[in-house]
Specification:
The protein has helices at residues 37-48, 52-66, 73-85, 89-92, 97-106, 181-190, 196-203, 211-222, 229-243, 474-479, and strands at 8-14, 22-25, 108-111, 117-125, 131-139, 145-154, 160-162, 173-175, 179-180, 208-209, 246-249, 259-260, 271-280, 286-295, 300-307, 312-317, 329-330, 339-343, 350-355, 365-368, 378-381, 386-388, 391-399, 405-412, 420-423, 444-445, 450-452, 455-462, 466-473. It is of the alpha+beta class. The strands form seven sheets. The protein has a six-stranded antiparallel β-sheet with strand order 8-11-16-15-14-13.
């Protein structure tokens, strides 16, 4: 069935730019870089054995290669040298700044984080009325996804304007958070790690503990004399859980310079499809929350991002039997005292989940499933619900013949979100002729829309290639629902 209301497509398309690179550490013997720890020392030996003049020439060449591509490449090299110094006494003994810079340069790689695609956006208001932050799934080498940010504004009317992006990008500084013992223990139990070894580690920790305190407890358990695959596996899985919860902080002024790339083991092969929402707490304060799909190469898990300023991001694991699948999207406030989220845990239909804890999801109620031909393969949400006087507006997606993705819309009851009040007959947005070709053809997909005045602002990814924008008058959309 064709679209039943007028949708205005913006001429604005955002395409991936392979020249956009981020400087990432390359430390052999660590996660993702292969080899054994002694490979790092062999590399360092070869570097330091070079004649002084050649070392100076290599450093000058590295500076020339990086010129104009990074805001502070020498600061990055120093940080990467410190990573090596934590693992190699040889690197730690270097006392000349030029030697540290050269080692850091050898242990740095440029990564073209959106060389394959820039797609699947979500959008939230941020700043003055009409201003927004757009998150996007940036796909680079190895089809590994990061979370990139763009900024812009809506208006006058439904016009959409994007700010010029900075030419520089950084992954920020990764820090470890303070862990909550009750939450940590519950997640270990869910992972099947409730045994004596885990108990001995947790017994050394307070109600809240730091990463350093956890490492001390892990070292004590490893030195206790207990040996065997089960002991090693328990200690590894405790460290896995800790490493999957972290904080990323940025000191750059431009939001478009900030890139959240995989840093925990659960997301080592990608952070996919972040769905941001502006969440209003019970006291009136606001937090930007997003769920995203963490992928480690074999398993997918939804994880949570929280930020108040898009400068400091807290990344955390979720738990509960319903927090194990793609497509989770939070409602922007509590409903009757409970957190609420949409999910698609059977891969076909949309559910509402309710919980008294933001990170624990244990039940789900069916809301709707595919009913029309354009969505007969599967359906799901297109981001977090948007609150109207009439109810919760949810953008949906559906898959039809030839795995063609299109977007739809439904209206849910404000007090009983599992109750469908109305839905749009037929799709709201379908791939345009110039949007059909890409890494995954015949697709339009969104991870979140925004309301501004009387307009629904709908960014969407097309064919895993780029990002487009559409606007719809909200009243017309509601009038078209049945």
């Amino acid at each position: 069935m064709p679209c039943v209301i007028e949708v205005t497509r913006s001429p604005l398309h955002v395409l991936p730019d392979p020249s956009r690179v981020v400087a990432r550490p390359f430390v052999p013997g660590t996660t993702n870089f292969g080899g054994t720890p002694d490979r790092l020392d062999r590399i360092l030996d070869r570097i330091l054995d070079l004649p002084a003049a050649e070392r100076a020439a290599m450093l000058d060449q590295a500076r020339t290669t990086a010129a104009g591509r990074h805001r502070d490449i020498e600061g990055t090299w120093r940080r990467h040298h410190r990573l090596a110094a934590d693992r190699s006494p040889l690197a730690a003994r270097l006392d000349r700044d030029d030697a540290r810079l050269l080692v850091g340069a050898y242990l740095t790689q440029e990564y073209a984080y959106e060389a394959a695609a820039l797609t699947n956006p979500s959008i939230v208001p941020f700043g003055a009325p009409g201003e927004f932050v757009l998150s996007a799934r940036a796909i680079g080498e190895g089809h590994i996804s990061s979370i990139a940010f763009l900024t812009g504004r809506v208006g006058p009317g439904p016009g959409i304007h994007l700010d010029e992006r900075s030419p520089f990008t950084t992954n920020g500084d990764r820090r470890t958070p303070s862990y909550d013992k009750v939450e940590f223990a519950a997640r270990l139990d869910e992972m099947g790690v409730a045994n004596k070894v885990a108990g001995s580690v947790l017994a050394e920790l307070g109600d809240a503990f730091t990463d350093a305190e956890l490492q001390t407890a892990l070292d004590h358990a490893a030195a206790s004399g207990a040996r065997g695959p089960s002991v090693d596996d328990t200690l590894r899985r405790i460290r896995w859980l800790a490493s999957s919860n972290y904080v990323v902080e940025f000191d750059t002024l431009s939001l478009s310079e900030r890139l959240i790339s995989p840093a925990g083991p659960a997301e080592s092969r990608g952070m996919e499809d972040a769905r941001f929402t502006l969440f209003t707490n019970d006291d009136g304060s606001v937090t930007y929350c997003a769920t995203y799909t963490a992928y480690d190469g074999s398993t997918i898990l939804p994880q949570l991002i929280e930020t108040s300023d898009f400068r400091r991001f807290r990344i955390a694991t979720l738990r509960g039997p319903m927090a194990r699948h793609k497509g989770m999207a939070l409602f922007p406030r509590r409903i009757d005292g409970l957190y609420a989220a949409l999910s698609r845990h059977d891969q076909e239909r949309t559910y509402v989940m309710l919980s008294d804890r933001l990170r624990d999801w244990r039940n789900a109620e069916l809301v709707l499933g595919p009913e029309e031909g354009w969505e007969a393969v599967q359906g799901g949400n297109g981001g977090s619900p948007l609150e109207l006087d009439d109810g919760w507006l949810v953008i949906t997606h559906g898959v039809g013949p030839m795995r063609r993705y299109a977007l739809g819309a439904v209206l849910l009851d404000k007090d009983e979100p599992a109750k469908v009040l109305a839905r749009l007959p037929g799709p709201l947005l379908e791939p345009a002729p110039d949007e059909r070709d890409g890494y995954v053809p015949n697709v339009v997909y969104t991870c979140g829309a925004m309301l501004h005045d009387r307009w629904l602002v709908l960014p969407y990814g097309f064919s895993d290639r780029g990002i487009g924008f559409a606007t719809v008058e909200v009243t017309a959309l509601l009038d078209a629902m049945v």
